[in-house]
Amino acid sequence: MPGKSPPPIMASVTSPVPPRDRTDQPWRSEGAPPPPPPKKKVSWRGLIWTALLVFLLTNLLLSLFGDEPPTKISYTEFSRQVTAGNVSKIYAKGDQIQGDLKKAVDAPEGEKGTYDKFSTQRPSFADDQLWDELTKAKVTVTAEPVYKEPSLLTNVLLSLLPILLLVGLWVFMARRMAAGLGGGAGGMLGRKQPPKPVELEPHKRTTFADVAGIDEVEGELNDVVDFLKNPDSYRKMGARMPGGVLLAGLPGTGKTLLARAVAGEAGVPFFSASASEFIEMIVGVGASRVRELFAEARKVAPAIIFIDEIDTIGRARGGGSAMGGHDEREQTLNQILTEMDGFTGSEGVVVIAATNRADVLDPALTRPGRFDRTVTVSPPDRRGREAILRIHTRDIPLAPDVDLAQVARTTPGMTGAELANLANESALLAVKRQQSQVTESDLSDALEKVQLGAERPLVMPEEERRRTAYHESGHALLGMLQPGADPVRKITIVPRGRALGVTLSTPEADKYAYTEEYLRGRIIGALGGMAAEQVVFGVITTGAENDLEQVTSIVRGMVGRWGMSERVGRLSALPGDAQQAYGLAAAPGTLDAIDGEMRRIVDECYESACRQLRDHRHQLDALAEALLANETLQEADAYRAAGITRLTKDTD
Q1: Where are the alpha helices (DSSP H) in 191-299?
Q2: Which of 413, 366, 195 is CA-nearest to residue 297?
Q3: Cβ atoms within 10 A of the Cβ of 359, count?
Q4: Residues noted as catalytic
Q5: pTM for the full predicted model
Q6: What is the pLDDT of residues 467-511, one digit of tens each?
Q7: pLDDT value of residue 139
Q8: Listed residue (429, 437, 434) closest to 454, CA to CA
Q9: How far apart are CA 169 and CA 152, in angstroms?
């Protein structure tokens, strides 16, 4: 892209990420003073044991409220005990008789032990002289029952006790959940108790010393760091603390790491959260969480709040009514706007946000007073990549033959995360090969794996193998012949990833603006594989699918975005994401003109590719034969096989 070269990016050794204290806490924090110890939570195991204890107490109460029930005996046994004079007293109600014995006797058959209290039923047909026998035996006939049953009120209370116990447990757990998760608009999905910050040791905080290649970015953020360190100096001059900093850049460029480095450099508490973690199904929960997050940050101000992927909730708001999750997103965004620059403001709190799509953010979010400055975090240049590689390899034993400057020179466009992955892949290869150090070969093979894909153990027929060799030789030869084209670094017909062969070309130095001649050379080189198949075999195959995708992307930008067509003119007729919005951004006549110009440019480039390959057929054959013999050709071997002198220039 024309204009000022983008600032380099930073990288760092993997640093510990503070864990969350609870799964429902949508942020992490570091460097904040620890709060008072939370109240001890009641576990489910404790609740179960409590319920069991209450159940046992209920049974004990049942046994205390009622006497021991009497033993049921037959009327014959009762008559025998009366005749024997062993009955002390009885109580009769209708035909039911209860009583006490003078001395305990053996229980009836089928029961164990003895008894001294009994109950029996007098048959209605009995025609005995029971009263006379009782009088003769001097048995006391009482007016009160021997066995007193619990009262109606006692029975009701004891029967309701388990239900009351369950209701009490349910209320207790509901209150515990409400206390742990909070109330508010989301009911039990909010929170009341403050989170427990994670206290990291000072030497574990990430600072600018842990990052590399961030000279321009660091200069943008030094004002924030200095303000947090010396707020009084700025207040004396009437300066206001920046409300927010927006970090915009491609994925993997280290925006999160940079935010942590700012907080660590300033020595202030750091709260980090992903924007998607604020969104819940129930409307109002996200806004409640935002309020709590800012409240916690103000308690330990000055502090930094970092919100990752803010475009999740910060997209431009529509004019129509919304429902469900969309309405929840807008309420969350409104709360962030209010907290950053509302009636109260976020005193002493700086908000740092990261996004890959700064163009879709709501204008109210990016205006001065909220996000006062936007810092573009771009992929690193060559020196930045070398510094990043040195940081990521400082814990990796490197062999003397490793030249990180050369590795940085062959990795244009790679981000800090990709370079970290490259260093890790090379270490993994060294372990697999049972080496004590990482060699230049390990780094080269790791780079091929990252850029080209892993090798596939695929056995191709000889005819298809020969066609693949000519296909890749066509790419490589046209790349060597085109003036100003990226030099060929490697050619291989070993299947990697989804490709049957790969030709790797990278520029000598980082490029930020591209000429029409360079882009046409890219198209010619991408069509070289198809052109070689047409020139040598007279047919084309499906192997050019990825090549055609690259060609379409380049030529669409040339015609529809960069004004490289006289017929379409100097205008941007298609947006950057034209593959999704194609056909919606311009009039039908303009789209037809774009389509015609795209076809014209591609046809001209294809004719040029075929013509050059016919004119240099002997070099194409030589390169293909060398590729069939060796399967893989490095840069020097490829140029030697094609008989072309490799011109080098100083990239510094």
Answers
A1: 215-229, 231-236, 255-266, 285-299
A2: 195
A3: 11
A4: 472
A5: 0.63
A6: 889 999 999 999 888 887 888 888 888 887 777 888 888 887 777
A7: 78
A8: 429
A9: 26
